Amino acid sequence: MSVPMLNKMHMNGYDVVSVNSGPWRVCTKGDRLGSFGTREEALAYAAALPAYKAKAKKVGQGANTR
């Protein structure tokens, strides 16, 4: 039985991930933005993107607030 290997880095708010020596992927929490053959290509792509900051969840208006 083999154990999956995960390599994960962060750049500009993006995740740069590779599983089992597969392609490097640049992702946000919900989207995969690109897939690359080398870590350097993936990091260069993430560095070229505008900084990513996850949006806060909207809070619904409750009863009267004081």
What about the largest sheet? 4 strands, antiparallel
Mean pLDDT: 86
**Which percent range describes the beta-strand content?**
25-35%
Quantity of strands, as a count = 4
Judged by helices, strands and strand pairing, the structural class is alpha+beta
Q: Biggest sheet: strands side by side, in what order?
A: 1-2-3-4
First CA to last CA: what distance? 59 Å
Elements, N to C (H/E): EEEEH
Helix count equals 1
Identify low-pLDDT runs.
none
| Overall body shape | elongated
Query: What is the helical fraction, as a range of percent?
Result: 10-25%
Radius of gyration: 17 Å
Protein name: DUF2188 domain-containing protein
Organism: Pseudomonas chlororaphis
Could you explain the architecture of this structure?
There is one protein chain. The longest helix is centred in the middle third of the chain and has 10 residues, at 39-48. The protein has a four-stranded antiparallel beta sheet with strand order 1-2-3-4, with helices on one face. It has a domain at 6-48. It has one helix and four strands, in the order ββββα. It is of the alpha+beta class. The protein starts with 5 loop residues before the first strand and ends in an 18-residue tail after the last helix. A hairpin with a 4-residue loop joins β2 (14-19) and β3. It has one helix spanning 39-48, and strands at 6-11, 14-19, 24-27, 32-36.
